[in-house]
Amino acid sequence: MSATVWNFNPGPAALPRPVLERVREELLDFEGTGLSILETSHRSPEYRRVHQGAIEGLRKLLEIPPDYEVLLLGGGATLQFALVALNLLEPGHPGEYLITGRWSAKALQEAQKALPLLGPGHAVRATWSSEETNYDRVPRPEELVVSPEASYLHYTSNNTIAGTQFPYVPETPEGVLLVCDASSDLASRPLDVKRFGLVYAGAQKNLGPAGVTVAIASPQALERSRARGLPSLLSYRAVAEKDSLLNTPPVFAIYVLKLVVEHYLAEGGLPALAERNERKARLLYETLDASRGFYRGCSRPESRSRMNVTFRLPSEELERRFLEEARSAGLLGLKGHRSVGGLRASLYNAVPFEAVRALVDFMREFQRRHG
Amino acid sequence: MSATVWNFNPGPAALPRPVLERVREELLDFEGTGLSILETSHRSPEYRRVHQGAIEGLRKLLEIPPDYEVLLLGGGATLQFALVALNLLEPGHPGEYLITGRWSAKALQEAQKALPLLGPGHAVRATWSSEETNYDRVPRPEELVVSPEASYLHYTSNNTIAGTQFPYVPETPEGVLLVCDASSDLASRPLDVKRFGLVYAGAQKNLGPAGVTVAIASPQALERSRARGLPSLLSYRAVAEKDSLLNTPPVFAIYVLKLVVEHYLAEGGLPALAERNERKARLLYETLDASRGFYRGCSRPESRSRMNVTFRLPSEELERRFLEEARSAGLLGLKGHRSVGGLRASLYNAVPFEAVRALVDFMREFQRRHG
Questions:
Q1: What is the separation, in whole angstroms, between the first and last Cα of chain A?
Q2: Which chain A residue is nearest to residue B209, measuring alpha carbons?
């Protein structure tokens, strides 16, 4: 293994090194208590400060309006796929879905599985899909038709497998909640939170380790959720009312999330992160485009993701060799999703510019030898 | 703060020091990959070994029959309260609950909240309760009447707030699944798993950090779960079919769980843990009983918990002083649950005998000065 390694994992993904060092530093003695954060009660004043710090940090980093609630949940985005329908669907008002990749298709499927629990009159449907072209793009704004009768419009802002991303926020008619699975780009660029009914994201791409999911709920979403009888941990309202301390939360994951958020705030917040993420992606796409077809991007230029850059080589044999040699050069996590193959470099917040520099140097050299 | 501290936290609770040291040791470089386990993909071979290791370790430690499935879930026991009803309740066959404390009452409440999702004919009911005597005991075997029509019998094997514990496993009629919330005593003593339909436990008492829940499901429970259409993460069957890798799992919590389980296996497994837990509890109860009423145990002797020893002092003023002085002496986490007050020492697996030794020395000295 090379001395320096660069982590292009698709999530769980790179974390800022100073955060990992801090975690290591205080792992056996948290704030002079003599106890590890891993053995600290979630009702202790020490953990309370961590919990509130994580929520306040997210509010600041993401500029969340004061009337929105920040929820810290378990179960990942897959659980949210069901909770969106369970909490927000109203009878006679279908949930509409933009299908831009495997995860948005899954969001629709899981909502469908929730329908028998909700009873007659509840429905969900796809209103746009790029499945026929292998999810190579997201819709243009003028292609979107949202029914004014819809309960909500659900979309996936960044598609990790195909490597596409919405460059805009969709418009919805009055009363139709905009719901976004932002698992792979929340906190990677500024977001106008007040346009959303609900935004959710597993932390393990841009915000922290696996094990905690952030949901940002508008007053309208919480109001709808209140109207339903649901088991507590399935109800946005019930979780919000207890400040996400309805039961033992995933203490350690929230602790690391807090440190990551504070680290990004100190680095300049979303504007600084967005600028760096843009530079990283630009360098990599320029390298693809300058390769005269040796490296072929999988997504259409107007839909290209700043987070996950997907590309192919002239043959699967060359792709295998690329992965092997990259690994030897300390460039890790570049394999495409098992459902599509090819290559993928995930460029989340904690991936430094130098990592992309090292990757494109390697790519040019690889092309020189094998092109 | 005293040089040595002892952790009597009710959960999240003490973890074995060698495990914490190992976590610290490899936090920045997991198995020579150059990456932290916190930034390792859940689809990587490294994490796969951790995941399988955790499951295999639990199978070995708890002697789980091969036809049972071990599930690793998020959401804590509170989510299980709902999942039990969603997965296992059949129309016309009520779920029956033994109410031996606040958590079993909560299990019933959350199941009630799940009923509207299940439709007509589904019901749950309490069939025994010690609420009137402040949950000071669990039922005697001869007090239990379980309907042969029940879907399942649910009970809480150890009650952390009241400090009671079942000294036996309840009998159920053929076809009635025995369901146990063993959050606070799983892995603290041998358990005859094959008598159960389902056993579940948040890891944060005896098995690891907060953020992962272990569920052990019988073939009968999985069969019932299959019969229902449920969102994937709410279905025991769907999670079992994907080996608890249906989506990104709580990687770090499972990693620590694996290390804890391996540590206990190396220490001699459940027989050794049970023997030590028994010695710890005996020493503390003997101290209460020898105090001529200065320390009064809250639970009846025949229902006393080996995990959570609850007691009172002659006045709340003395209790406050006890807590303060104990804290100064490095004895942490002794405050009773906020709903009942008083004092509580939690003696989970990772609390060493010396900790209890230090506690009883302190208690005798405190009584000498204030008794």
A1: 26
A2: A38
